[in-house]
Amino acid sequence: MPVYESTVDNVLGSDAEFQAYVQDYEAAILASGFLEVAPDTGQLNPLTIAKPAVVSTWAGYRIYRATDAMAPTKPIYIKVEYGVGAAVDRFAVRRTTATGTNGAGTLTGVTSAVGSIHAPSISGGGTGMIYGGGNESHMWLMTWDTGQPTHCSFWMCGRLIDQDDGESDEPVFWDFFTATSSSTLAGAYQWTDGSTAWAVNSSGVYEHLPNLGHAINTGGDVNTILLYQGMVYRNAKTKVFPFLAGRAAELPFTDPAGSQFNLNLWGASRTFLAIPFSAVISGMRIAVLWEE
Q: Which residues touch 40 (CB under 8 Å, ≥6 apart)?
């Protein structure tokens, strides 16, 4: 599974530094191959976009679309806006998902609410990290600021996968993100049970958390008995989200290199990365598929 890793400047003092951050963030979005840049007109140019000079201002947007086998009939479009937040030298990102676009940057069809993915409230300092990964069914992206834990953020979206083999064959689109200390699981969903229209569901899915029990742990200081997975039951099969949930005690995090562990899960031995769920050092954590 492709994994993107880059060091970024947390203090944006120039257009060039803002451009570099946009380029790295987009590279992380595209790293898994699940999303690509759509051909919509009116999109910003990551090489030339100017950094906003006023707080809480968006410099422009990019439109991304799903590339998987279900995209032609069950498309996914994501509008990502890049700018600065409450501090003019801090990078900010928000996203909106939809089932279509007019080709000029306006989302159409079933459209989600705008969600703030990355919005630090105060100026930071030094450098940070951007990590991105996923596979043909989903993408995930994390920003990590060791000096300001509440400036960390996480975003993940994609299709459900089959519990038996980990393959994506259910065209449900889900979207999950955390910025500062908040979290949301929401998105547009299309079941393959004869439904003809997309339905928006913003709650209730992540509450399905069956105990994984004694899954095989082959690395990392992880308590597998207390890990959980998001699950739904559709079309006589169990479908899951490609991440696990747990408390900080079960999913300790130091850095990506030291926070990976293996589980015999979803039909194969898979490597996961434990990361903060609520963008702070303590509290809830999730573990994303790091590589297969």
A: 63, 101, 103, 104, 105
